[in-house]
Amino acid sequence: MSENDRKLHREAALTAGRPAPHIPPRRTKAHRIKDDSEALAVARELAHEFAPGAAVRDRERRLPIAEIDRFSQSGLWAITVPKSYGGAGVSAVTLAEVTAIISAADSSIGQIPQNHFYMVEALRLAGSEEQKRHFFARILDGDRLGNAFTEIGTKTPVDFKTSLRKADGKLLLNGQKFYSTGSLFAHIIAAVAKDDNGRVNIVFIDRATPGLDLVDDWTSFGQRSTGSGTVTFDDVEVTAFQVVDHDGVFERPTPMGPFAQIIHSAVQVGLARGALLETISYVRAHARPFFELSIEHGYEDPHTVYAVGDVSIRVHAADALLFRAGRLLDIAIENPTEDTVAAASIAVAEVKTLGTEVAQLAATKLIELGGARSTLESYGLDRFWRNARTHSLHDPVRWKYHHIGNYYLNGLLPPRHGAI
């Protein structure tokens, strides 16, 4: 990398941002979760802990460093490590439900490990035996993977300028990433880069590696505490052991795409659940009746009763689709074929579309039924809509409708990539 390019990379990365927080090395090994039922129980316990501070973290853009440490040390970040490597190897149904449970409490925290789980799945599908043993052991002990995937300024979100090139006998990583969810909390950064042959690879880099810079410059109006900012790689020297072929997992039928997407779907379903629960709680406690009605409480208003019933039905439908998608994804994981992977992709796309719509509907009804006082900043109720709207932009739902329609109407299988 030239000195001028290096200077431009650093200046772009450090503009209007804060230095990355210090993440100390782990002092103890994480708890090891044994099975699906324990994973769900631990998720419910953590959601109970995380929910009370969600509004304040959102309002102050406070990074949930302590919460993420609690999350990963609980063992939940290692639940997809296969049983043959010492993990719980939980089902996709359980992974989705864990994500939804946490996201109902705080959707930023729920989203943060999405790319961690994606990279664990990449290792499972494409890693060498030695890579699996090494990285799975670290993950089981509590190390977190952070995302360095998408870039700004390319033609599409899946075009990459970040390069992995051989120079003077060294393998060097250069480039810059944005939307790097989870990177600020990570022990290992998983970067996506093109090699000399134009193939896309995942490169696993320890956080303290020279030339790797993290910047807290995420300023979106929603998902404020995901820390999805900038990562810069400036002649970062790596070895072949740190590289996993990313293209290969989409060149054959694998569950990689629907696996990635079911976690995003679960974030939306969790947001819908959280907004509905907040609506019921707030309306019961604070909503006043319309003056034309001769009733004592706002929750007796027939229009309010109807609206809560309507949203409840839609949230429960999204719950059912999430479970169904998990079941079909588990089939594709067990037996990956063109047909099973396509069925899983479509099922996940269905829950993503409905979950996205219901999350925004529930968040809107929360404010509508709560009344004017519900807009006060002190309640922080607007975060549900802001978070649902922001997270929905990760990949366009309109294209999911297109692939779903083509699948059922024309018998066309969806493409294989990380957004379907």
TrEMBL record:
Domain Acyl-CoA oxidase/dehydrogenase middle: 149-236
Domain Acyl-CoA dehydrogenase C-terminal: 262-395
Gene Ontology molecular function: acyl-CoA dehydrogenase activity; flavin adenine dinucleotide binding; oxidoreductase activity, acting on paired donors, with incorporation or reduction of molecular oxygen, reduced flavin or flavoprotein as one donor, and incorporation of one atom of oxygen
UniProt xrefs under Gene3D superfamilies: Acyl-CoA dehydrogenase/oxidase, N-terminal domain, Butyryl-CoA Dehydrogenase, subunit A, domain 2, Butyryl-CoA Dehydrogenase, subunit A, domain 3
GO cellular component: cytoplasm
Location of region: Disordered: 1-29
Record has Flavoprotein as a keyword: yes
Acyl-CoA dehydrogenase/oxidase N-terminal domain sequence ranges: 42-143
GO BP field: fatty acid beta-oxidation using acyl-CoA dehydrogenase
Superkingdom to which the source organism belongs: Bacteria
Keyword set, alphabetical order: Flavoprotein, Oxidoreductase, Plasmid
Biased composition (Basic and acidic residues): 1-12
Family statement drawn from the similarity comment of this UniProt entry: Belongs to the HpaH/HsaA monooxygenase family.
Name of the featured protein: Acyl-CoA dehydrogenase family protein
Gene responsible for this protein: acd
